[in-house]
Design a protein that fits this description.
six-stranded antiparallel β-sheet, 279 residues, 12% helix
């Protein structure tokens, strides 16, 4: 009986020492500009989204910035591509919708807002090759749902700047949770892309799936990697305090910080309709 009482007393002492802890996060009084800019070889994707950040514990709604001056400059020639704010999408779009990125050119993003100037730059890289997209039905297995699994086959002939992202749009809905940032590079080689890169999703018959493959500059790829790490931070005892990913956008003038990223990339798209194959 003495042993039982000792164990009970120890449990009571341990439970009485528990205390809820709030992390001393930087709770800025004013929002920080957040810039999310995409410049590609397809005009439909090209946009600049500018908003104000919220505090970590804040549940306030999205606050768009609509009074900024936005343009992209072609660094080689100095040509300016002006943007305008579009109320319907709450984004900035090129005045001329036919404007797009061209391989080999380097582009500079410029955002001027209330005396603050932000810049970033990226090079338009050549796109890899996508040969085919297939799907196959798989039975339910451990850690794997039953359904149709998609494989992407292609070639990546480049020896450098191999940083990629695949976005998945299922039935017109972008898969945008923390498990959906499909990033890969050439750390372990790229042969797997020729042998078929399988997406980790189980689709169902009649699902319409669109895939978008991006080839990213290293700084944009690093930003997304840091973002994924942040999304997987569970706030546990051994997790580091959450912090914003390192932006590839710099402050040129003005007393301010800036968050977000600028992507210059080709976009390869493939769409499939999942259909069962009957004998």
């Amino acid at each position: 009986m003495r042993t039982i009482w000792v164990l009970l007393l120890s449990s009571l002492l341990l439970s009485s020492c528990q205390e809820e802890v709030f992390l001393p996060l930087d709770q800025n009084k004013e929002g920080i500009p957040v810039i999310e800019a995409l410049w590609t070889d397809q005009g439909i994707y090209n946009e600049v989204k500018i908003s104000l950040s919220n505090n970590y514990y804040d549940s306030a709604e999205y606050v768009a910035i609509s009074d900024a001056q936005v343009y992209i400059k072609v660094e080689r020639t100095g040509r300016i591509i002006p943007f305008r704010y579009v109320d319907g999408t709450k984004t900035y779009r090129a005045n001329n919708p036919s404007e797009r990125a061209r391989v080999g050119e380097r582009y500079q993003l410029n955002v001027n807002w209330r005396g603050k100037v932000f810049q970033s730059a990226g090079t338009m890289l050549e796109a890899p090759i996508v040969d085919s997209v297939t799907w196959k039905f798989e039975e339910k297995r451990l850690f794997r749902d039953e359904g149709y699994y998609i494989k992407v086959y292609g070639k990546i002939p480049f020896t450098e700047n191999n940083n990629y992202r695949i976005r998945v749009i299922e039935n017109d809905t972008l898969k945008n949770q923390r498990d959906d940032y499909l990033l890969f590079d050439d750390t372990f080689g790229l042969r797997f892309f020729e042998e078929g890169l399988e997406l980790g999703y189980a689709f169902q018959e009649k699902d319409e799936v669109r895939l978008e493959l991006y080839r990213l500059n290293k700084d944009a790829y690093d930003y997304l990697n840091q973002l994924v790490n942040l999304l997987f931070n569970d706030g546990g005892l051994f997790s580091p305090p959450p912090q914003n990913p390192q932006s590839n956008i710099k402050v040129v003038s003005g007393d301010s910080e800036v968050l977000g990223y600028f992507v210059v990339s080709p976009v390869l798209t493939r769409s499939v309709l999942i259909q069962a194959k009957y004998d």
